[in-house]
Write a structure and sequence with these properties.
The complex is a heterodimer of chains A (242) and B (304). Chain A contains 9 helices and 10 strands. With 242 residues, chain A is an alpha/beta fold. The chains are: A alpha/beta (242), B mainly alpha (304).
Chain lengths: 242, 304
């Protein structure tokens, strides 16, 4: 049986005190898997991964990563716990060069130059433009840089918030495939996506959230053709609230 | 005219040093800090105290450096004053602005900055008196560079300009070539992304206040070398420093440098055509004219 890397149990979280957006959300993420979170707008998907990253305060519940309780960590401590977070937008520093973006996230390690060389070998389009300002990159290349920055610190878990948003269908597919490929390297991905069908084809497991609660979860392949999924996206029927 | 230009460049260098710290704080903490110019006063008066101290314990340090009115004691005093001002800036943030910031009330921070400015100004007045003071009572004569057109420059002015430019070049090197510089630029551009990239924001905020304090203290001492020191230095300089910051574009350090020189030169050149009483209005006119054309200043990015 595959080991569970991340376990969130009965998480309540929100931006404003006593006004939780997430109400008793629980998930389990297996090691080296791609786990997808989907749901209608306002479901709390992004809030949930922000809560794991420590960006949104957790008012109750527990988040455990590899046996270590990480509930309420500070965002800047994520890397110490082996977590990287790729925000949906503004996920690179536009005024820094591509190399400087990578140097920034690797500033605390002694093997920064070697790691950057590895990353440039893996993401060759970035290597060609390494001394250009990151703001000049195309949407797809920006996401590539954001993923490279996340990977730079050798995380065990990468939280990705709608990485395909605003990209062309081809670039979106490439970014999602890149996420899938990372699992082959032993990295665990927790992905929030609006691009449901494309993401589900690549994911191992899928959670559906609505109104800040768990609605349903199952293997992604099983859910792909499930009529319930489309109904939820059409704003219709809800599965019994958790 | 060339004399006004030269004087304007000197004033511009001092304003630039003040504006660099202000633009960093305004951009990162999203509030207009009207007490920033008081850090120049703290720097100027701290240097006065340390100057007297060093001259007292080692009279040899009271000798002037070459043709300058600046002594070795004042040089050491300036370094100590920079430290004191940097620490003061951090303490002001810790005890006043941070408490308000934690409650998420940016407008209250602006009002608080007016209060902080008045407190500092009056404490300095109580401690040192309202009478103007000088670092040196020696008369330093200006050197005639040219008789037609007439251009007189004091050695101190040249020193201040060179020192200010040197400080700016050091800052430029740090920002553009060091990882610490990238960190500061990253936090200024996108604080929330910086945090999730492993940067501890509270530490960087403290460092920004320290840098702002260091530069303000240097500007305060440089101002004092060519002017009288009194508790209202901050009041007199707050608007030109704000103008320099806004003209350069909030958040742009290079913009603040350019803005400082633009405001300094324009204010001095305006004296050629306007009565001196209108001089304080010149920075406002520059702000108005520039914002009509470039609402985010010369190098500023739209605030998100």
């Amino acid at each position: 049986m595959t080991e569970i890397l991340l376990r969130a149990t009965d998480v309540f979280a929100g931006y404003v005190k006593d006004l939780p957006i997430l109400r008793q959300v629980s998930i389990e993420v297996k090691k080296a898997s791609l786990t997808l979170i989907i749901g209608p707008n306002g479901a709390g998907k992004s809030t949930f991964i922000k809560a794991i990253a420590g960006v949104v305060p957790v008012s109750s519940g527990h988040i455990v990563l590899g046996g270590q309780d990480i509930t309420g960590i500070r965002p800047d401590q994520m890397a110490q716990y082996g977590i990287a977070y790729v925000p949906q937008s503004d996920n690179i520093f536009r005024t820094l060069t591509i190399r400087q973006n990578l140097e920034l996230v690797l500033r605390k390690t002694k093997r920064g130059p070697a790691r950057i060389a590895d990353l440039f070998a893996q993401f060759t389009p970035l290597a060609d433009k390494q001394n250009e300002n990151a703001g000049t990159l195309s949407g797809g290349q920006r996401q590539m840089l954001a993923v490279a920055m996340a990977l730079a610190v050798d995380p065990s878990l990468i939280l990705m918030d709608e990485p395909s948003a605003g990209l062309s269908p081809k670039a979106a597919q490439d970014v999602l495939q890149m996420a899938r490929d990372l699992t082959a390297q032993g990295v665990t991905i927790l992905l929030v996506e609006q691009n449901v069908k494309q993401a589900m084809r690549l994911a191992d497991h899928c959670y559906i959230l609505a109104e800040g609660r768990n609605q349903h979860d199952a293997g992604a392949a099983a859910l792909l053709n499930d009529p319930i999924v489309s109904e939820i996206y059409l704003g219709g029927k809800r599965v019994g609230a958790a | 005219m060339i004399q006004s230009l030269a004087d304007g460049v000197l004033v511009g260098a001092i304003l630039s040093l003040g504006a660099i710290g202000l633009t960093m704080v305004m951009h990162m903490l999203r509030f207009a800090n009207f007490s920033h110019a008081e850090l120049l006063s703290i720097g100027a008066y701290s240097a006065l105290v340390f100057d007297a101290f060093f001259s007292g314990i080692m009279p040899i340090l009271a000798t002037t450096i070459g043709p300058l009115s600046m002594t070795w004691a004042l040089t050491l005093a300036m370094l100590c004053a920079m430290g004191v001002t940097g620490i003061s800036a951090v303490l002001i943030d810790r005890f006043v602005f941070k408490r308000i910031r934690d409650k998420g009330d940016e407008l209250s921070m602006v009002f608080a900055s007016f209060g902080v400015a008045m407190i500092i100004r009056n404490v300095l007045g109580l401690a040192f008196g309202l009478k103007s003071q000088l670092y040196s009572n020696d008369i330093v004569f200006a050197v005639m560079i040219s008789s037609d057109p007439l251009l007189l420059i004091k050695p101190d002015q040249v020193f201040v300009l060179v020192a200010a430019i040197l400080i700016m070049l050091i800052l430029h090197y740090i920002l553009s070539r060091t990882t610490f510089g990238y960190t500061l630029r990253a936090v200024a551009e996108n604080p929330s992304l910086a945090a999730v990239s492993g940067i501890r924001l509270s530490r960087i905020i403290a460092l920004i206040w320290i840098i702002g304090g260091l530069l303000a203290a240097a500007a305060g001492v440089f101002y004092g070398l060519n002017n009288h020191i009194n508790p209202v230095i901050g009041r007199d300089l707050v608007l030109p420093i704000f103008a320099a910051t806004i003209v350069g574009g909030i958040g742009s350090i290079y913009g603040a440098v350019l803005g400082g020189f633009i405001v300094g030169i324009a204010s001095n050149m305006a004296l050629l055509v306007l009565p001196s009483g209108y001089s304080p209005a010149v920075p406002f006119m520059i702000i108005l004219a520039l914002l009509l054309v470039r609402p985010n200043g010369l190098f500023g990015a739209p605030q998100t």
